[in-house]
Amino acid sequence: MAAAVVGADCASDARVEPGQQQFSGCQGTPQGAVEPQTRPIDKAITTDEQKLADPVSPRDCHELANKAGLGDVDLSETEGHSDSQDDDERQHSGLLSAVTSEPVDLLTLRSLALQPGGLLKDPIRQRAWPLLLQLSAEPPACVQSALSLTEEQLRAHECYGQVRLDVERTLKRFPPGIDDCVRIGMQESLITLIVRSLAAHPDLHYYQGYHDVAITVLLVCGEDLALPVLAHLASHQLSVFMTPTMEQTQDLLTYMLPVFEAADPPVAEFLVRSEAMATFALPWIITWFSHVLPSYTLITRLFDYVLAAGHMAPVYLSAAVVLHRRDELLAVDCDLAAVHSLLANIPPHLPWERLLLRSSQLLHQLPPEQLQPRVDALNRARRQGEQEERERLKRRREAAERRRRGGVEDGWWVRRLVTRAGAPHWTLVGVTLGVALLAVTVHYWRLRAQ
Questions:
Q1: Which helix (H) or strand (E) holds 6?
Q2: For 174-264, where are the alpha helices, taking DSSP H only?
Q3: Which residues pair with 312 in a beta bridge?
Q4: How many Å apart are CA 278 and CA 242, to the nearest integer?
């Protein structure tokens, strides 16, 4: 399958709503109101633009923010920045120019994606997301191989059952009000997309939350383009979550604590004392917030930001959310349950554009390489603590096993003399009588000797 950008003409103001792409549904179901057009994305990229390949460095992110006009904006004045119709029209015009220019101006495209409102509309995203990922015109061999799999081969994949279960539980992520027939077709398309993307990278492991990212990609890009985009995300931005263990994911979460230590020490101290650390942010980071937010428009906006700012953006955005809610956090009881209950539930009306700006500022002021020594120290301490806990549990299991087997170390002779109810065992009675008889015999022989 040629990796062409599928979508309606970006010059049109008509928005493609989620679910309007062509999905295989029930027989006779309309396949979509918008006739997709194809446009190759094999644009020549200049030498300077090659440096913009993901991941974006914090310095590049700051430069992009400055170019977008966000570098020195006061946080209190950011919300509503793009409310002006003139600003929207200028941004829309700039986006159209960025996605149609030859060669592609990735710097401008990324700076526009960082502006309030992001890429604005799904038809633009259909063209811009592959460009931000720098997908080639022809999909890689692994994607072409995955496309050739039959339905039987897909069903035989080791993750097929789990993927189906997860997709069937994701009704809230599908467009509201659609017919059941169309929804079932979209679910089947999503299952096929996820399994094919896993088959394209056999060394990667499915994780619960991957389907939340996949459905967003499918709704934005449509069936034809979704697989190259998702397969690229799996092997790059999401690969840290698709390892055999959660070790690398835990390492990534650790970056939040040094950010708190530098930006707001009381918050850092409170999270450490409560033992919550950053575990509450796990579903935020591994799904790019798509699992915890109800708004499709907001989710796609955050995807625009992450694709433009780099793979560390969800970590810094999570930190920005917590810092924004510091007063609420410091007011609750300092224990794991209370902190997790508060932070795991994101309020519906946060000032997301200000939070995105705050995230970009944190990424510039506290880049990952600057935090790396502290992160490494924290991860070593965490691993050491986990190892000590494993050893302690092992010793407890061994002690329990010895008690179960009646080992000498645990007083086997006591248990043999006493029943479970605590009453004397017949062995104890026999030993007592034997000792008494021996004492009488010794006493008798002593009397005779006298």
A1: strand 4-7
A2: 180-200, 210-235, 247-253, 256-263
A3: none
A4: 19
Burial (CB < 10 A; 0-12, 13-18, 19+), residue 80, is exposed
User: How many CA atoms are closer than 13 Å to the CA of 323, on its beta-carbon side?
Assistant: 25
pTM: 0.72
| CATH architecture label of 247-385 | Orthogonal Bundle (1.10)
Residue 18's CB: how many other CB atoms inside 10 A?
21
Stretch (H or E) spanning 396: helix 368-405
d(CA 33, CA 272): 53
CA nearest to 356, candidates 286, 408, 394, 304: 304
C-alpha distances in Å from residue 384, one per residue of 276, 283, 378, 417: 18, 25, 10, 43
In whole angstroms, what is the distance from residue 178 CA to residue 175 CA? Answer: 6
Give mean pLDDT in consecutive 10-residue pieces for the chain, a chain of 450 residues. Answer: 37 39 41 35 37 43 45 41 61 76 85 91 93 91 95 95 91 78 90 97 95 95 94 96 94 96 96 92 96 92 96 96 96 94 90 96 96 94 88 88 67 50 56 74 72
Rounded to the nearest 5°, which phi and psi values hold at 275? 65, 15
Helix axes 256-263, 265-274, angle to 10 degrees: 140
Q: ∠ at Cα 181 (194, 292), nearest 5°?
A: 50
**Residues in the chain, total:** 450
What number of H helices and E strands is found in the chain?
22, 2
Q: Which fold has domain 4-241?
A: Helicase, Ruva Protein; domain 3 (1.10.8)
> Up-side HSE of residue 328: CA atoms within 13 Å toward CB?
15
End-to-end CA distance of the chain: 114
CB 329 within 8 A of CB 270: yes
| Full DSSP string of 111-168 | HHHHSTTTT-SHHHHHHHHHHHHT--SSPPHHHHHHHT--HHHHHTSTTHHHHHHHHH
Same fold flag, 4-241 and 247-385: no
Task: Judge whether 65 and 360 are in contact, CB under 8 Å.
Answer: yes
Sequence-distant (6+) residues with CB within 8 A of 392 are: none
User: To 10 degrees, the CA torsion angle through 387, 392, 397, 400?
Assistant: 180
Domain boundaries, the chain: 4-241, 247-385, 418-450
Torsion of CA 45, 47, 53, 59, to 10 degrees: -130
Please tell me what DSSP assigns to residue 173.
Answer: G
Neighbouring CB atoms inside 10 A of 426's CB total 9
- What lies within 8 Å, CB to CB, of 103 at 6+ separation is 43, 44, 45, 46, 49
